[in-house]
Structure formats: structure tokens, C-alpha cells
Amino acid sequence: REQNADCVHCVPAVLASFPLCQLTEEDLTQNPLFCKFLATLSHHVDRTGLAVSLKEELEKAERELQTQRLAWLQSESLFRLLQEMIQDHCVRQHHNSTSSEDNKFYETMEQCLLVAQCVRQLDPSSTTGQEQPPLLGLSAKHVLDLMPPEKDVRHMKQRLLAELEIRLKKKCFNILSYYQPDWEDESEGLKNLKLSRLPETLESESKRVEALREKEWERATLLQRQTHYYLSELMGCMQILQSLILDYHLKAQKELDKKKVDYLEAKCQIVIRKIRAEMLQLQLDTYTAEKISAHRKIKEKLDAELKAVRAEKQSAESMLSSFEILGQEFEALVQEYSQLRLEIDNKSWALREFSQHSH
């Protein structure tokens, strides 16, 4: 009971410590030892499952990488800015006439930049921490001999700071205008003030974006957990529904069959009545009033003939009964009469034929 009570108290903390795991409160409450193990493990790992010591080393490495990345970005930005200045001067020199002082300044700067690039290629140990064999037998000292005169370099450096400041200031104003287009028409002093606050503003917005991403990640994790819980509950409901269907299927089927039989009987009666109505309609369409009157007259005529035939039959039967009273002697006379009648008919036919052929 004590373990279950402790498990109930630490369930929310365990779920929050392991958001990526597909765990539910029911899983943890049913397995208190496993819940206790996860609660102990949460003190040694972070939310992503990474060990605390390894997380510290990773954060340290990320800070060092960020420092080196910032140093590289500064040098790369300065190098590209110098290249851009040289290219702009070449374009101006091609389209317009430039002063000798400007030409000397940019030539000295370009030469110094090329020498610095060559030195970096020949001696990368300052940036990579590794030694490299000399290229074509050259060393950084050989290339440094190609530097412009020290006087020209000094004058170039004095002017370069001002030029870089102007260029960087212009680019910062462009970034400020891109960030807030409404600030483009404001005064230079106000722009400088807002530009000084721009890093803090961008940093705060970056933190806000990271916080929103963190919240979005937490919401996505919560949604995933709730989806998993919802699906598990849905599966349970489906199982219960399936058992109810299996349990009450026969009872419902019996009632359904009875209703189906009643329905078929009613439908059969309706069909029979409909057939009867069609038969009556067919008779009405077949036997009109004129046909019935004609049939009635025909029936009357046939009845009269039938009556006469029956009367004739009755008289013949009465005559036959009177002849039967005379017995066998009358029957012999009848046969003799029939024979004589047949001979008379034959001779009459022969006489007619003879008379016809004799003419």
C-alpha cells in the first residue's frame, strides 16, 4: 500500500521526466516498482534520456563550438567586407576617375589582404592546430617580404578604421531597416539608439522563439501521449462493444427474424391483393358492357337450343323404352328393316349413276 501511495504521488513527475516514452498513468500505477525505478532514474538523466554528466560535457562542447564559430564569423565577416570594399573601388575606378590617394589606399589594402591569405594557407597552425608541410618550399616569411612599405601600411590602417566603421554602420542600418521597415525614415541618432538595443531585442526574441518551440514540443508530446491513451481507451471500448454484440446477437436475431417474417407476410398479403386488383382490372378491361350483352344473348340462345335438344333426347329415350318392351322380335325386324333400307339406298345410287351415264 505504501508503494502504491508513493507511486501515485510520483506519477506526474515521472510522466513529465520521460515525455518521449509511451507511458500512461495506468501503466505506472499498476507497476509501482517500475514507477519508483523511473523516478530514481529521472535524477540522472534529462528529458531526452541523456545522462547528466554527458549533458554537461555536451553543453561545454557546444559553448566552445559557439565561441569558435563566433570568432570565425567575425574574421569571415571582416574579410568579406574588405573584399566588398575593394570590389566597389574597382567599379568606381572603372566608371569614374578616382583620386591617387584612394587608389593607393585600396592597392595597399588589397596587397595586405592577399599576403594575409597566402600566409594563412602556408601556415594554418594558428587556426587548425596542425602542422602542414611547406608548399613549393615557401614559408610565411617569404610571403611577408611582399608586404607594402610600412609607411603605406600605417596610413592604410589609420584610414581603414574609419572606412570600416562607415561600412559597418551602413550595414547595421540596413539590418535595422530590414528588421523594422518603419524605422528607415527616422533620424540617425534614433537609429543609433535602436541599433544599440537591437542585439538585446533579437536575443529576447530568440529566447521567446525557443520558449515557444519548447512549448510546442511539450504540446506535441502531450498530444502524442493523449492520442496513445485515447487509442488504448478506444480499443477497450471496441472490445466491450464486440462482447456485447456477441452476447446479445442471438436474442436480437430472434426478434429480428420474427419482425422479418411479419414483414414478409404483410408484404405477401399486399402482393396478393395487388394481383387480385390487377386481375379484376384486366377483367374490367376485357369484358365491356357490349361484350357482356352479346355473351348474354349467346347464352340465352344456347340455353334454348340445349332445352330443345334435351326435350328431343327425352322423346327419343321414351320411344326407345317403348321399343324395348317389344323384345327380341322387334329387334330382328329392326335389323331387317335396316338391311332393306341399305339395299334401297344402294340401288337408288346405282340407278342415278346409270341414268346419268346413259344420257
UniProtKB/TrEMBL annotation:
Pfam families: HAUS4. The keyword Iron does not apply. Keywords: Coiled coil. GO terms for molecular function: microtubule minus-end binding. GO terms for cellular component: HAUS complex. Residues 292-319 form a coiled coil. It comes from the Eukaryota. GO terms for biological process: centrosome cycle; spindle assembly. This is HAUS augmin-like complex, subunit 4. It comes from Scleropages formosus (Asian bonytongue).
